[in-house]
Fold this sequence. Notes:
Layout: H1 10-21, H2 25-28, H3 30-33, H4 40-67, H5 74-81, H6 84-117, H7 123-138, H8 142-169, H9 183-189, H10 192-205, H11 221-250, H12 253-256, H13 262-271, H14 275-297, H15 299-308, H16 325-341, H17 344-372, H18 390-409, H19 411-439
Helix pairs in contact: 1-8, 1-11, 1-14, 4-9, 4-10, 4-11, 4-17, 4-18, 5-6, 5-17, 6-7, 6-14, 6-15, 6-16, 6-17, 6-19, 7-14, 7-16, 8-11, 8-14, 11-13, 13-14, 15-16, 17-18, 17-19, 18-19
Amino acid sequence: MSTSRARFGLHTAAAVVVANMIGTGVFTSLGFQLESLRSGFALLMLWVVGGVAAVCGALTYAELGSTIRRSGGEYTFLSHIYHPAAGFVSGWISATIGFAAPTALAAITFGTYLSSVFPVLPARWLAVGLVVLLSVVHGRTHRTSGGFQRWSTTAKVALILAFVAAGLSFVAEPREVGVLPSADGVSNVFSAGFAVSLIFVSYSYSGWNAATYVTGELRDPRRTLPRALAAGTLLVMLLYIGLNYVFLRAAPAEEMVGRLEVGYIAAGYIFGPVGADLMGITLALLLVSTVSAMVLAGPRVLHAIGEDYPTFRFLSSINARGTPGVAIFTQAAISLLFILTESFETILVFSGFTMGLNTFLAAGGVFLLRRRQASDRTPDEPYRAWGYPVTPLVFLAVTGWTLAYILRDRPLEAGLGLGLIAVGLAIYAVTRARDRRTRG
């Protein structure tokens, strides 16, 4: 999508980043981290280290996106830097598993939370209704789409800040968290438990790259994209640290160990008997902007594929209001299929490996891109990643370690991910052959 259609500003781009990142992960992971870590310092450092890695990735992607000013995220980056085959595989995985399946999961979770508070409402059909409604909203105009995303994300941030403020103000018997480093805390940071927990923290930070999927529709992407990625990721990092501090301060660690619903437990200590219902409604509201951001960003990958491959030309259609309506409703249809068949859980087991590989290759591509452009300087020079080459190397180190861990300790999931890549390459070969015949 060309920059002449740019309609999204900084606020919307940052909102897409924040909303994509904040789902349910931060409200559910602490209980499992407490199984191997008990130091408040180490537990909070998990979110600091994960946040620093995400910020480094965001700064690196800002350079990629301001240099290659086209929507599509990793699809565009890998196609441009490496080979169209790499981009194609990345694109079809992102558009289906990377967006449609998480959209389905977030929508189902939204329905489950609301249904737990209001049992008369069926969770599955609440999920279906949310996806359909948001697809209509984002299929209208850039103004409607951007406005909804901004306001829903602002409401999400406000709810989290209100929860953190309540946790700091209304806990009758606050627990000592111990945020300063101690001998025990430092040893926890260098333990195997910390390393394993960091993998799941990294998953909670996924989505920091979301604004790159709408690069071609941003106003002045050279300036807007870096600011949106960096500001959005930093904001989420601060919110995550604040939430986990409040969880540890409000509820006894013994009650949260191994428990998924740490948000409910903490809310009970903050708000009393009504805490669980309040948390259920709050989490449901938080997920509206998450689903919205995925419905906004994901279809841009399908649209870019449609522009590049005649076989999928129908996906490149732009409606009279300038939005990629066909791509939006195609992704919605895939999400609804996942919701109605409940098959997304199996897919999400191994999708983390393939998506991690996508971001690793894209971030590594910044070194190749700089080498190619060393002699091609123009007055409109793209943003240069702050801290280069340290920032991309930090991100590559953390992501590479995660991928290596999955390969070593989760060979089944890694094998399924590699198999998915092989299937994508086969589809690419068939598509290219068909397109050549069509042109011939």
